[in-house]
Amino acid sequence: MTLVNGGIYALLAIGFSLIFGNARVINLAHTGFFMLTAYGLWYFMRRLGLGAIPSIAIIVPAVTLLGILAYRFLINPIREHLAAVLLMTIALAMVFQELMLALFSSNYWAIPALIPGFTVILGVSVLNQHLLTLGIVVAVVIIVQLILAKTKLGIALRATAQDAEIATLMGISVPRTLMLTMGIATAIAAIAGVAVAPIWIISPAMWTPPLVMVMVVVVLGGLGSIKGAIIGAFIIALVEVSVASLMPHYSYLKVVFAILAMVIVLIVRPGGLFGIMFEEEKL
Amino acid sequence: MLRRLFKDFRFGVLPIPGRLIAIIFFVALFIAPLITHNTYYLYVFTISNILVIFAVSWDLLSGYSGQVNFGHALFFGVSAYSVGLLTKYVGLQPWATIPIGTLIATGIGVLTCIPALRLRGPYLSLLTMAYPLLLLGLVMAFKDVTGGEFGIPSIPALANTPIGKYYICLIVMTAAVLIMWKLTDAGSRYIRTGLIFHAIREDEIAARASGINTIRYKILAFVFGGFFAGLAGALYAHILGTVSIGYLSMVMSFQAIIFVVFGGIVSIYGAVIGVYTLYTLLQLLGAGGQNFIGKNQILIMSIIVIFILLFMPEGVGVWVRDKIERECPRCKLTNGAWRRNCRACGASLH
Known about the structure:
Chain A is mostly helical. Chain A has helices spanning about 1-25, 30-45, 50-75, 80-105, 130-150, 150-160, 165-170, 175-195, 210-220, 225-245, 255-270, and strands at about 120, 125. Chain A has one domain (about 1-205). Helices cover about 70% and strands about 5% of the residues of chain A. In chain A, helix 1 packs parallel to helix 5 (about 130-150). The relative contact order of chain B is 0.15.
């Protein structure tokens, strides 16, 4: 469970961190896209009766496109105002939630496992679905690292994150890079949605608990750092699962302990574990 | 005395449309119960007045001093839960629970800002966002004390009639908004907090270099924010008669931000406009969830917010004020937009 939850938090946190590091936008609608994907997958598979692969092939690009459009038309014009961006993204997430509520009612839905059955590893039986989720997580993390390290796009992304003005001078189109960043971040969130849909229960409010956890993870690991996001995700998932298994009666305390872990890290290191402090934000 | 008041009114209020509208608005609120006895309308206005205190206190803390707090519901909820627990276990009456609840919220304000003082920008926002969720986890974990998701029922009402409740909340709201307006007035000769909050928001290093103890004023901002949000929370608990986990939810924190940013951040009147358009108007049009507007309130509110942010990023209040008022380029005096020349120095306004 630690690995699965940690992997999902890591996926969501990487996207959140990417978009914050490059565009300085705190995207609270990030898990909203994740919810949309889960709903879309459920709709295509259960209502329209499509197979798993065509459903995924439709829904992931669709949600990615939606993310890019939302960035281009809603977030980009007001990118300078921090509070306005926050409000815009939370309003966007609420619109998603209310639309899902209106379209599919507030019932809970579920999707069957993409691969049924379980495997025995070292004497512990593991659901195949969990293995698949883990595989997706590892694959995405490796692909993102490769894109960032090897391709021209990745170099442009990192240059923009470090200094947008100098990046413009070097001939990088910053607005286009930011749009692509948003696209990559949303695509990762959509893939996380695909990975999660068969495990979690699908409901219109499913975007808030992971949003809180992703915030905790990202702040713990340091905003804008991908390594921090991955390590933070596993720390938080470990805290969460150990609280749930040690004190089953007080399972609500898992959020409390996760947040306490974050507060302690922040008091010791105000920039998070691997945070990048920008020059103008230091004091 | 009376003559001086009249003179102030004639030269300080009448020529400035914004102030005139504000005074007409407050007078209208005070005489509203004489016109309508509809219990639902009075109830909606009572709740709106409490939300005004809550939203303005967020503006004071986050808009003015620049420490963007995402967990303002913490103060609201702490105060409401103190009221609930004091009523349930000690059996105190509203005149005692409201001050105690407010003081506890103020104390929590001081406590939360200790880790917050080391952080700034997005880190501070995300940390403060986590606080109410932390408390929410505690409330849910100790269900036998706090009632869990069902909350604490049967808290005594503030007054017996809806009109009594309306007037108590209206008077408290007017007093609180006036005090917060004075505290944040950068042009005041006697209270320096407004000027210093502006300085800290614009450039903290420069403020510190000018000999301002910025740490002390940042704590002071948290104290003020906690105090007024706590006041709102305690009143809200007594009006609704129950305390539940909704008081601590993320929606509650974001409600304050939505109202303020909608009306215009860093302006006290912006928060008032935000509450009275987004909450009161939608509630009145929605008629308690009967028609289409009532059923899709959150959706409509979110869509309005998106369009407002796109087309008037400064907020509705500031946008309207820029349309009806114009500052004289020579003497910086505010004039009505219909004038061609400044009313004091006669310079052309175009």
